[in-house]
Amino acid sequence: MGEIEIRSTINGKTKVLKTKPARTLLSMLHDDLKLTSVKEGCGQGDCGACIVIMDGLAVNSCLVFAGQADGKEIITLEGLAQNGDLHPLQQHFIEQWAFQCGYCTPGMLMSCYALLLHNPNPDIEEIREAIEGNLCRCTNYRGVIEAVLKAAADLNSISQIKERKNA
Amino acid sequence: MIIAGGTDLVAQMRAGIVHPGLLVDLKLLGLDEIEVDENIVSIGARVTHTAIIESKIIGERFPALVAACRRVGATPTRNRGTLGGNLANASPAADSALPLLIYDASVVLAGLGGERIIPLSEFFKNYRLTALRPGEIIKEIHLPIPTDKTEARFIKLGKRRAMVIAVVSVAIRLTVDESCKIQTARIALGSVAPIPLLVKAAEGILENQALTNEIIAIVAQEAGRGISPISDIRASAEYRRNMVLVLVRRALTEISQNLQGAE
What we know:
The structure holds two protein chains of two kinds.
Chain A: E1 4-10, E2 13-19, H1 25-32, E3 51-54, E4 57-60, E5 73-75, H2 88-95, H3 105-118, H4 124-130, H5 142-166
Parallel strand pairs in A: 1-5
Antiparallel strand pairs in A: 1-2, 3-4, 3-5
Chain B: E1 2-3, H1 9-14, E2 24-25, E3 34-37, E4 40-44, H2 49-54, H3 56-61, H4 63-70, H5 75-80, H6 83-89, H7 97-102, E5 106-111, E6 114-119, E7 124-126, E8 129-130, E9 137-144, E10 149-157, E11 168-176, E12 182-190, E13 197-198, H8 200-206, H9 213-225, H10 237-262
Parallel strand pairs in B: 1-2
Antiparallel strand pairs in B: 3-4, 4-9, 5-6, 5-9, 7-8, 10-11, 11-12, 12-13
Helix pairs in contact in B: 8-9, 9-10
């Protein structure tokens, strides 16, 4: 099958990409664009290591074909830090020891980021539900849950400060 | 071959189970809206499980469908996976098939020869075999809005809450009259036969009856007669037979408690 041209916004930049349509978004992001945070674990949608945000929703990039990403807005872990400053989620993952080997971490962070996009004040049950598709086999999920709670609190106080400045 | 969310198809392609020469994505057709037209809720085939969970009308009128969609895979699966895809994949364990069966869903099938509408109970023909003809797609799913007092339950038994294929699943709907006598009963079972199925004989026992413990025990036994489970890596046939009894009893007991509580 020949290549097609797709137009996607990736980490805030609009790109025109030439790709075979029926190869995975995972492979396009990792191999072509060198966004190596996007990891292949199982390759069949079970482990969550390849999760990215597509149009605001967490998706397994191993189950999305590159052609289906045409016109979509994609965020990978590389898009979280701004001007060299880690996102509060990343900072709290470090402080809470929310990872050990780190292989699941990019996908885990994207699931948590997607959760906070839709729900700025998640409770523990909602955090658990958001990461139930992310397998971590070497540390535990408690650190992750703590990190999300603390990041949510940080983000809310940042937005309150902004509101006060605007008022 | 048609691709929707890809959550089944891409994994099957990778595993070498299917080798489509051509893939057609239906996204240009839309088919991603939930619409209410008088007494029918029409769900486009490309509506995702997440969209079902977030829909107000589905939550109010078809809570067992929301409960089932919440148990599909995990969040990323639900964000991509579609109702039409779940039906076309025709797994005996398809989570959304059971609530759709108990709510008397119909499917609108469209092809070059036009459209036809069939009850979902006639859509599943055999293991992973459907009534779809070559060139036909699922366009919409139609759900009649229940008019009388209705209670429904969906229960999925798996080794964990997320990311599992059901060992056994059950969906039950009862519609009752003012004296709580059962007018309509639907019992759907998953992962215990080549297709997701309604067990008619068990449903028949409930009609025109009050929901007593004795009736519940008889119905659970009868539901267990209508199945043909297999042993596989997830469970033995014997375990599945036992669990059908347990889950039917549990769902009916919960419905009974709710009906009494509402009085």
